[in-house]
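Workshop exercise sheet. Pairs work together: one partner reads the sequence aloud, the other fills in the structure field after running the prediction. Swap roles for the next sheet.
Pair: D.N. / O.F.
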Amino acid sequence: MIPKEVIKNVRRIQITTTRLVTDVFAGQYHSIFKGRGIEFDEVREYQIGDEIRSIDWNVTARTGTPYVKKFVEERELTVMVLLDMSASSAFGSVNRLKGQLAAEISALLAFSAIKNNDRIGLIAFTDKIEKFIPPRKGVSHVLRVIREALYFRPASGGTDIAGAIEYLNRVTTRRTVTFVISDFYDKDFKKPVSIANKRHDIIAITITDPLELNMPDVGLVKLYDAETGEEFFIDTSPASFRKEYKKNAWKRFKEREDTFRSVNVDTIDVRTNIPYMRSLRAFFKLREKRMR
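Structure field:
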């Protein structure tokens, strides 16, 4: 039985995100994420008036009777959320943890999908696949996706983005719009993302805390690496240390952006200290403008 507190929080997320979907994404979501146009449905016998170019010559040769391919317009989308649940997502110096922010964005995307009659699925991952929910429709299905995004507890703490992308390709048989939500503290994911983006529409939602980019002067502090378990002390007092920290942090940030740009993957830069709707609005408007 689901605890009342869980139900209450899921309901709160539902109310909040539904309002955002209605007020902000009305018309934009479906205009920038389109189906493939048409997809194969079946073959049927040739009828007078059918176009010659629609004839299925393989079936015609096997049966000795002319057959044509029938296509139907495909408007529905399959939306997948790849949610990073590694230990580094349990960090946040302002407002909310990165993982909490990621879960709420997942909920927003899920309700956007259902509002447009699309299928929505979830792959929760760390350095292994923790949870897979196949894409389906329906309010109860969306609520399950949100519940798992909010309350699922992973067994591992590492990060393997390449493994999650490869798993996506194995479990999906059709093109998807895939949102990868992560802080992207991982290596060697460029090639699998590049390959997957040729088949799917991959969008990377990067979540960053301001403390990861700029270290303040707080004296001697003890730090803990959530993914490796390593503990160490650093002295943040020297200005030279803080300058080097900032330099290296922004270098990693730029390298990540350059990686996505080089494989033609759109990114949404989300910060824990800035309302995420600002970043999502900017992305939707930019992509809508680009598609005109």
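Discussion prompt: The mean pLDDT is 86. What would you look at next?
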